[in-house]
Amino acid sequence: MSDMFFPRAGGDLRSGQETLLDLIESCFPLASRYRAHLGRDVLDLSRSLTDKRSDRDDGYLGKPAALSAYLRYFLPWNVYRLSRLLPALPLALADGDAVTDLGSGPLTFPIALWLSRPELRSRSLEFRCLDRTGKVLEAGGTLFRALAGAESPWRIRTIRGSLGARVEGPKAALVVAANVLNELFWDDRSAVAEQAERKAVFLGALARDDGQVLIVEPGIPRSGEFVSALRDAFIGLGRSPLAPCPHAVACPMPGGRGKKWCHFAFGTEDASERLHRLSAAAAIPKERATLSFVLAGPASAEPASAAMAKAKAVVAAAAAERVLPDDPDIPVRIISDSFALPDGSSGRYGCSRRGLTIVYGRRGTMEALESGTLIRLRTPSGPELRDPKTGALALSADQDRIG
């Protein structure tokens, strides 16, 4: 795994974005009389996905205007977000492996993986792409074939159905749910932890014991809270987080009731100018992209009940921990934007096995630590410094950095 998530798009990825936009136009041409209303259609669809959810029917993406808006705006932006994340993830995919992609839509995840992980293009992989709308799956299949070509060793199998529909074949090496679980927790207002436990069991059962589960959601408070709860549930099932967490103890940013939630933000200046123009026309510009995610690893050999008991013991020990005399190396995942501190220095919130952590230092130092960077710091030999407002452990990036 890279020490930094969300590396800026290089030349190949930028050209891939432009190719995708060209293919959308060539595969799904739009008459000029409809193009004039494209910005309005994008805005209408955005509202139906957020504040007008209750007015939306299950087959909304089967309508021509909605499907066109989704393909031209939401698909490229979702592919962009995933393409900035996927290069840094330790995905373990080998020849003959299967990927189960839940809520695949227009094959967003396979397209993003093809564009951002070229070393996987020669591997023989099967993608089982499930979505409840047949037309959006068909559109995605058309786009992927145009992008990857007829000789691609990736085999795409589409399955029309809702979450829980039967997926034929052996368990998957990777189970993906990207931008789909929010559909559930917005409609189901039961306790987040209860929902997360049910979904973790369901998702884990689709993966091989040595497989992985990737969850990606928008970087909003409710999503961050749900992803954090899923992380805890996966740990209880013996699947420790591989990313973004630098530890497998209590999440210091669980969200809920005004608490900080784990999410990452990054600039979109390297996204296609055409995409930015459409965003402006729809009055929903995207200067930054945000997401919350977790990659859960292989299942432990321990029974689930033993893994749960062990996880709870580890979390309890972490809560009581104050010094680590035998292990002063503290990996911290930078999460927040930079903010000013009273003494004139700058800080960023981060996640470490010591809980919520503030990394502080000179302004230039802190601005260089982008959201998602993993930094290794050495704890001071004297008394700990803690933030009086949050209780977070404070570590200097200028003096104590070791990696």
Per-chain topology:
Elements: H1 11-27, H2 32-35, H3 38-49, H4 64-85, E1 98-102, H5 108-116, E2 126-131, H6 134-148, E3 155-160, E4 172-178, H7 182-187, H8 192-206, E5 207-218, H9 221-236, E6 239-243, E7 264-267, H10 273-281, E8 288-299, H11 304-320, E9 329-334, E10 339-340, E11 346-352, E12 355-361, H12 363-368, E13 374-378, E14 393-396
Parallel strand pairs: 1-2, 1-4, 2-3, 4-5, 12-14
Antiparallel strand pairs: 5-8, 6-8, 7-8, 9-11, 9-13, 10-11, 11-12
Helix pairs in contact: 1-4, 1-6, 3-4, 3-10, 4-5, 5-6, 8-9
Q: What can you see in these coordinates?
A:
The chain has about 400 residues and is α/β, with parallel strands linked by helices. The protein folds into 2 domains: about 10-305, Rossmann fold, CATH 3.40.50.150; about 320-395, OB fold (Dihydrolipoamide Acetyltransferase, E2P) (Beta Barrel). The protein is about 35% helix and about 20% strand. It contains 12 helices and 14 strands. The strands form 2 sheets. Strands 1, 2, 3, 4, 5, 6, 7 and 8 form an 8-stranded mixed sheet that branches. Strands 9, 10, 11, 12, 13 and 14 form a 6-stranded mixed sheet that branches. Strand 11 (about 345-350) and strand 12 (about 355-360) form a beta hairpin. Helix 4 packs parallel to helix 5. The longest helix has 22 residues, at about 65-85. It is globular, with a radius of gyration of 22 Å. It starts with 10 loop residues before the first helix and ends in a 7-residue tail after the last strand. The model is unreliable at about 320-325 (pLDDT under 50).
